[in-house]
Amino acid sequence: MEGTPVTVESVSEVGPDTVAIALETPDGFDAQPGQFVLLRAAPDDEVLSRHYTLSSPSVGETFELTVGVDPDGDLSPWLAELEGGETVHIEGPFGRIAYDGEDDIVAVAGGPGIGPSVAVAEAAHDAGHDAVVIYQADEPAHTDRLEALTDAGATVVFVDQDADDDLADAIATHREAGQLYAFGFDGFVTFVADAIEDAGGDSDEALIENFG
User: Which CATH class is domain 4-94?
Assistant: First the structure.
């Protein structure tokens, strides 16, 4: 199997149909929050690969990926059932979207985009900067980390799944509070880009990761 073999350290449930997978950090792996890896595994002896964005604010002995679990999927349910000690393969990190510790940030998250969003916010806070997280979901994940961010002085705005007007209002209110990031699937990040433009901003200045 291609890529670097790494050990699964742990898998924990962090929300409805959402798990966080901690992987050992291989030698020479230097990633920033916002970047992603290609993960390969072979459930039932069939090699499958998916891209997952880091959801840990830094890379130490381990790093974390947040995975939305599709019950009908071919890889995510298998990953969710791991207990630690198994081996998967990774390539990367990849991606031009990364937080380097230099700015206040506004992270807009849809669905599994909360993983990298909370990582970027934590990294900003650790670097002494302000952070805003705008999160659209009916059943939020990573609530413990979001509560910790709130307690530390960050702004966290929850928006219901179907409340697009509220999402647009939150983007308009906070878009100038820092470098804007957006993480989510195509329809979500397209809406975010349009909301930025409608609020008088320039969506080309935002760092937007489209999960497809």
Answer: mainly beta
